[in-house]
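Let's sit down with a protein and look at its sequence and fold side by side. We need material for that, and I hope you will provide a protein of your own picking. Once you have written the record down, we can walk along the chain together.

***
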Amino acid sequence: WSPINVTPSLFAGDVVFVGVWQDRTNVSVSNALANTTLAILASEIYGRVNLGDGLLTTYGPEIVRLDFVNPSIFQNKEQSQKLLNAFDAMARREVKPIFDEINQSDRLALDAVVFDALGLTQGERDAVYEAVIGLVEARLNKAKSLDGQGRTSAEPQQKKIDERKKRVKAVENITGIWLGLPVEQAEREGEHA
């Protein structure tokens, strides 16, 4: 999850990155979007696995590369309130391990609002969840295959290639979700100007 800081101050250690949304008009919507399964997917794609046990981290360079859904697609007050209500319901409970989290009804409700706004088909929605699970499993399995000294000598080159192919395939399966959104948004804004 992306923790939300609603106070003006935050104590953070040297391993925590704190961000501020550049567009301050949709902060609540942006916060909700940062906690969707699409945001988890972006973290899995761009994050680093460098602290052992398969722990995923996102530092400054990865954070600026993360693909977020543009909050301006929720300009409709009713749609944006539906998103905020879904996020509020989900934010009231503890985070579960991803394999449980991804099936929680409140998470599915939050994602459904975003998927509906993006016009995703059921197949595309399923592909998002499959990609997240596949990437997490690959990351954790890789961690299990490593010993305390780094790669085991028994890990074949083909296994590394197969893992890379899985990551690329996961990205390819969901690329259409983001492609064209900024251009389409710009075109819609141009029509209403």
Remarks:
- Strands lie at 48-49, 56-57, 146-147, 150-151.
- The first strand starts at residue 48 and ends at 49.
